[in-house]
Design goal:
Elements: E1 35-40, E2 48-53, E3 56-59, H1 60-65, H2 74-79, H3 86-90, H4 93-107, H5 112-116, H6 120-124, E4 125-127, E5 131-134, E6 142-145, H7 149-159, E7 175-177, E8 183-185, E9 190-191, E10 194-197, E11 206-209, E12 213-214, E13 217-223, H8 235-238, E14 242-249, E15 252-253, H9 254-260, E16 274-276, E17 281-282, E18 290-291, H10 310-315, E19 317-318, E20 321-327, H11 329-333, E21 339-345, H12 353-360, E22 372-374, H13 389-392, E23 400-401, E24 407-408, E25 416-423, E26 431-441
Parallel strand pairs: 6-22, 8-16, 9-26
Antiparallel strand pairs: 1-2, 1-5, 2-3, 3-4, 6-7, 10-11, 12-15, 13-14, 13-22, 14-16, 14-17, 18-19, 20-21, 20-25, 23-24, 25-26
This protein binds calcium ion.
Calcium ion binds next to loops.
Amino acid sequence: MAVIRIDETHRPDLRSFVASANEAGSDFPIQNLPFGVFRRRGSTGAPRIGVAIGNEILDLSACAALGLLDPAGPAVAAACLAPALNPLMALGREAWRGLRLALSHLLAEDSPAVRRDPGLRERILLPMTEADLLLPAQVGDYTDFYASLHHATNVGSMFRPDNPLLPNYKHVPIGYHGRASSLVPSGTPVPRPSGQILPEGASSPRFEPTRQMDYECEVGAFVGAGNVLGHPIPLAEAEEHLFGLCLVNDWSARDVQRWEYQPLGPFLAKSFATSLSPWVVTFDALAPFRAPPSARGEGDPPLLPYLDAEEDRLNGAIDLTVEVHLSTRRMRESGAAPVRLSRGRFRELYWTMAQMLAHHASNGCNLRPGDLLASGTLSGPERENRGCLLELTWRGREPVPLPTGESRTFLEDGDAVTLRGACEREGFARIGFGECTGTIVAGQTR
Ligand code: CA
């Protein structure tokens, strides 16, 4: 697939003049170059597109105004002046690649532009600590899939012990239409929602704050160039339409979900907030970490032709690990470090992002630049791979012990959940995703 290409921007020996980008363990080395949208703290100006480099942000609006993005072409430079990533996402892969190369040259240790003008640094970079990171794109539509066979099997066996995995699972990528308006950037507090709940043993529901607040550790993909209504996207072309990945926490009220999910699927149990990490790591940055999907194997039913392509079988997955950390209010007050709740691998999903996108468009549904497709909860075969508390505590039966003597079955007010992701492979720079964090706060009850 022409889509996956390793070039000079991936060289492990590349270094940046931004010293923090060269430190071991930095999420944002010069090989990463993830895109986001920020506003300088205290400013009332329009949001700007930025690129994370070490612990600083390269201001692409400033770069475009100074002509520094001209090597990527006028359309790219114009798109970088926008207050969201949608126009850049719409331009397609050759444009993104040209911009990535221009940014790699601009930020390199021997950057010709900075050598010519040592004062340039001040005009195009700002510390990340001086910025508020916003949603990367205006998300028109958000779809949440259910691509982890392990998650589907675990949840199914709790609610339908005699029939855990529904017969369609290995044939059709299952998803539901989420709510784009309640997507929030990392760091936004998450009020505990109220909803209809049928208490155990009761015959009629009550309306009250959820007692089973949960998170779901997921990976999200932003759609780049879209498709015209009525024109499906073949699997072999699907990755041409994928811009990049972020981390997603699909907060879930389990008691509300249990009462409402049949017959049409999740609704208010999910639509009160979904948190996104602020930096979008491009598929181009992830080229060195491609891998075969590992959840599908012999004995699984054959795929329908529109969901099958050799390149997808060989390289459709991405070897990305995402960890979930919990910090309670009492843990923070006592100085205890956050505890890791789980660790999931993105390549263990049953479906690849390309298959999810091709399936989504297979009926002619039009996807638009900035649409978000989330993977579904990232769970794996072991207990430490369970990507939500519902699974981790097996529906509340096995509480998670914490260093303060507290324990959790579901989240309490004051609990902060943080997702962190990274790709690592011998011979390449480590690519980090930064973090996706949110703290539960008491909600309005009316
Ligand atoms: Ca989900």
